[in-house]
Design brief:
This protein is mainly β. It has a 16-stranded antiparallel barrel. It contains one helix and 16 strands. It has one helix at about 10-25, and strands spanning about 40-45, 50-60, 65-70, 70-80, 80-85, 95-100, 110-115, 120-130, 135-140, 145-155, 160-165, 170-185, 210-220, 225-230, 240-245, 250-260. Strand 13 (about 210-220) and strand 14 (about 225-230) form a beta hairpin. The longest helix is centred in the N-terminal third of the chain and has 19 residues, at about 10-25. The chain has one domain (about 30-260): Porin (Beta Barrel).
Amino acid sequence: MPVQKLPLLLISFLLFYVSCRQKEQSSVSPQPELEASTRIVTSITYGSDPDAEKDYTYNSEGEIMKYTTLGDTVTFRYTIDSIVKSYSASINQWISSIVYKLDQNGKAISSVIYGAYQKPLSEFQFLYNAEGQLSETMQKVYETGFTYRQVMKYENGDLVEIIDYEHNGNPSAKYVYNYYLDKENKLNINMHHALDDFLSKDRLGKGNQHMVKDLTNISMDGDTLSHLRFSYPQQQAENILLEIEEDVWNEFVTERTYHFR
């Protein structure tokens, strides 16, 4: 009995389909796992100021895809070894995008910041400790060639100290954090990060284990330059978290509410 053969055109189609599927699956960066207790932040509101609201959009894997704030829209695009974070060019005047390079586990190991017309401004290198927390950054500014460092210290899973270093190696500033050890941090976004930046799913280092209580900026001479105090009033609803930030010296209070899905 003769063996039936698939038409050549059908075989070609199947090979093309399998190739495309393999390429599509390999174009997505590795997916760090979210803990079951993690609270996914969908928006942050600031007191009675509607213009200050931040809204977050995620894909089905919990990766942040977009957030909006103060008229600016920030989008994220993921590949197997990079993340491209793009800002609305019409709103943001000095930065247009950040491109992060990822390691084999999906953690950011470096980034390049681009300004107007995609002009590269500076690059960062990220180092992590054995627990996966961000332990050091090095920023090279292209225009001057200077490199600046930040070194982080942790206790009980929390960031407790940051020291900034100038390009000449001299320390220039110190930031000291204290925490509520009875208040576990379950937010999926590391809001009190060493960098003025964040990525979802701990791609820029694990978040703090506890909720922050105080943040103090101390000069290298020991003088206190600023002091922020945080509190978290008890909430009735399960899908929100209220954070009160008090600028102790300037007697200014910011009310911040996290909304969860």
